Amino acid sequence: MTIKRLKLKISGMTCEHCASSIEKSLVQAGVIEANISYLAKGGTVSIDLRKTTLDDVLAAVQSRGHYRVVDVLELNSGESSSARHLIIIGGGSAAFTAALQAHELGARVIAPEGGELIMQIAMGLKFEATVADLREMLHPYLTASEGVKLAAITFTKNLEQLSCCAT
To answer: Which of 2, 28, 119, 138 could bridge across to 49 with cysteines, CB 3.0–4.6 Å?
Structure first.
């Protein structure tokens, strides 16, 4: 089975019901997997190239009324959707940016220590932050791992080793 994974930007959605309606239409058109979100203004689809074409996908979206696919990005070339994984250790800004970039490329992201990171990613996705947006942002507070490091250093009273965020 030759699988193609596509990221779609869709205009015309006004609520999550719109996204659900588009997903149903895509599944009826032969799409293997469809994850459409109103907040993301689009989503991802996986198609079997032997059964479904890009034209079928576009027609399925547009058959539901005023929805239009305004951009299509191919996420991989025939690999299964589980081919890309990212495990993030830690919870700083770099981990947050890496997780968002990996998500944009269709990877599955795991962050065993990332409760704070997961919340940041969710907020970034909700407000459609791009990697470029994140590069310009600073976290005005310590991350969980920096807080533990700060506490450990404070016990030794060597204040020169404090995190840059604590000065």
So the answer is: 2
pLDDT tens by residue, 31-42: 888 999 888 899
Residue intervals of the chain classified under CATH 3.30.70.100 are: 3-80
Does the domain spanning 3-80 belong to CATH 3.30.70.100?
yes
Q: How many CB atoms lie within 10 A of CB 26?
A: 26
**Alpha-carbon span 109 to 101, nearest angstrom:** 10
Tokens for 147?
């807080």
Residue 78, beta-bridge partner list:
3
Provide the greatest CA pair distance for the chain: 67
Q: Cα separation of 142 and 103, whole Å?
A: 24
